[in-house]
Amino acid sequence: MNSWASLTAMVRTQPSAAKVPAPTILIVDDDPDIALVLKDLLEHSGYQVQVAVTGAEALSTVKAQSCSAVLLDLMLPDMDGLSVLTLLKGMDPALPVIMLTAFVEVAKKHASLTEGAFGYLTKPYDGEELKALIKRAVGVKHLSLEAASAKQALTASEDRFREVVQTAPDAIVLADGDGRVLSWNSAAERLFGYRAEEVLGQSLTMIMPERYRANHERALERVRTRGDVRLKGTVVTMHGLHKDGREFPIEMSLSSWISSGTRVHCGIVRDITARKEAEARLLQQQIEQQALLDLIPAMVWYKDSHNRILRANRRAAESIGKTVADIEGRSTDEFYPEEAERYHQDDLEVIVSGRPKLGIIEPHRAGGKKHWVQTDKVPYLDPQGKVLGVLVFAQDITDQKRHEAALREKQGLVRMVMEVAGNGIVIVDGEGTILSANAQVAELFGYAPGDLAGQSLQRLIPSLFSCGQFELGPDRCTSTGNSLAPDSSCVGLHQDGAEIAVSIRSTMLMTANGAQGVVAIHSVGDPG
Description:
Layout (H helix, E strand, L loop, with lengths): L2 H9 L12 E5 L3 H13 L3 E5 L2 H10 L4 E5 L7 H11 L5 E5 L4 H9 L4 E4 L4 H22 L1 H4 L4 H9 L4 E6 L4 E4 L1 H7 L3 H4 L10 H17 L8 E7 L5 E13 L2 E10 L1 H23 L3 E6 L4 E4 L1 H5 L5 H4 L12 H14 L3 E10 L2 E13 L5 E10 L1 H23 L3 E6 L4 E4 L1 H7 L16 H5 L15 E12 L5 E13 L2 E12 L3
Parallel strand pairs: 1-2, 1-3, 3-4, 4-5
Antiparallel strand pairs: 6-7, 6-10, 8-9, 9-10, 11-12, 11-15, 13-14, 14-15, 16-17, 16-20, 18-19, 19-20
Helix pairs in contact: 3-4
């Protein structure tokens, strides 16, 4: 009896059904728009589609009916996507679960694959890529079921089994209880570089690096002595060993069964080099993007339409005593319970209109203290121009607000002093332009209060300029003040053209805004 006949004899039972119904795909996503688009796309491709909006509903659906694959969003309203993944794999270890992600940290994507996810897609997804991944997942599920129930599937014909295995896109390797190769399909030949005749009857250790071999032998021994098949139905990631000696990353779906008293192990193997390279590039991009975000001298968030923080920089996280990893993927409500709804309404205004909202001055509570921030909100678009979320840039302006308040207070005090002073008082800049004048000056020269601001002091006292008595500059001004021409007598000019004899005293200061002078003016009677 040849090897195919021996294998057929080991797995022979009842024939399979004549017709297989269309595969059922379960979509688990709380976004109705995304779920509807996915459903239409898959139904158009010939699949039956079920939709669940919560983790609990997804688990109930899988418990009630058989699914060929699941599209699972990482963030659901009632459960974390990774928790749902773990529970689904516990219910049906062979069920392929494809994670849907949206710019979340790379660690969660790695975690989903470690927990047994078949793969992941990043929103916004490519329709052709999605269909190809679904087709592959359905095929792998079918092959896994075929291998696990081979004694039912292969009774009709040894040729049928050979055709299924030989034309499979993934490597399918069968081995006996001692780890000796029983079956080696065409995809395995391409993947490992060995022809079937080179490996049939040989140990599986010839296609695994040295570091895995001891654990492999111990696992086979546990199965032989205790029937411990703890890896049955799981997906493991490791490295394969090519005939030419090079190692490459692989993902392997494992199964095991007893046929006619003989243990049969099955591994469906795929090369994940491209995926690992993509993950490495994605991780590098994540690191580079995070470094750039952290260099921005502002708090930065990227939020979706559900008020979830998808990306943030270190400055934003540290403002609430957290790390970036602590807040990414979480709702704003968890960190800003009092302001979250107001923030979200502003976000939605930007998302719906597609227009930025700039210069928002708003309170921001961090570390138990109230701060003031100036916020700019900008829509984040995909390549097709669809708004995916909002980018938020916030500058802490608490110190600026304090300085402005202090300045207003000082200006108020200056104004109060000027108004209660017995003399007229004028504040001028280095060019002699009046910045402020009190009511006594306005009354003395016949002007309404407020009319003198912006006018030249020369308009009131022309002689002060013509005789060179008024001059401001670094050589005449100090930060502590310098009195110029004390009690100088000059002739002022009333608004109606009449001359007024006045006495002036000037004090000049060099301020942050340049030279400024305080001029006290007192009427001394008739100039004639």
